[in-house]
Amino acid sequence: MTRSGPKGKPPELKIVSGTDQPCRRREPAVAPIPGEAIKPSWLKGRAAKLWAEKVAIYRARGQAIVGCESALAQYCAIEASLIEQYRKGITPPVAQVNSFRIYAAEFYDTPASQVLPSKTPGRGGKFATNMQRPNGGADA
């Protein structure tokens, strides 16, 4: 099960935004594998066409997918199945739609998964508000 909440920022963005804490850095679990993604032989028809489209998009983004071919194939198969159900006028099960949405987020194929949440400056915490000195913070 994945953790709840927004996805974490990469260390490069944390350094730029000034929120980097070396003690909380999360390193990639695996190094990118060089080479080309190999389509599984069981993937046929519309799912195979979706595979080719997605691989081209990920290549253009510079997104590493080698080693994730099985997950990508399942994602394409679910999408092909959903398209076929919608064409036939069948409402797909919610579980299938949710599975598709999870795969889409994992591969950064949704608008929300492509954008990091904005950091809006707030008032601060309770201490920032309640612990202010009456004279504006200057020592008397």
What does this structure look like?
The chain is an all-alpha fold. It has a domain at 37-114. The chain contains six helices and no strands. It has helices at 11-17, 45-61, 69-87, 94-106, 111-114, 126-130. Helix 2 crosses helix 3 and helix 3 crosses helix 4. The radius of gyration is 22 Å and the shape is elongated. The model has no long low-confidence stretch (mean pLDDT 81).
Note the topology.
Blueprint: H1 11-17, H2 45-61, H3 69-87, H4 94-106, H5 111-114, H6 126-130
Helix pairs in contact: 2-3, 3-4
Compact overview of the structure:
It is built from six helices and no strands. It is mostly helical and 140 residues long.
